[in-house]
Amino acid sequence: xxxxLLSDAVAAFTxxxxxxxxxxxxxxxxxxxxxAYLNETRNFGSDNRTHKAxxxxxxxxxxxxxxxxxxxxxxxxxxxxxxxxxxxxxxxGDADLVTTTYMIEVYER
Length: 109
Known about the structure:
alpha+beta
């Protein structure tokens, strides 16, 4: 996957009317909304310094029903920002919401 900045990935959602929170909303808005979770970083360094930090994130889109048109617009925006992505679908039973998880890698520095 290509790697850009997390802000580029978040903009792909917000530019399509989807608010994004890091980890969780304290009071979740009406769907659709998204939450971004940091999985891990892989850092590149030398001489006891980190020069590049590559972070793996899951951005989880929550919706009442799967919206292929919205997913397509988000994916087009990710592509336009040079943010590579993979995705998987799911269901969040406690909230009765469909989820689409976008797995991305972006530079943090």
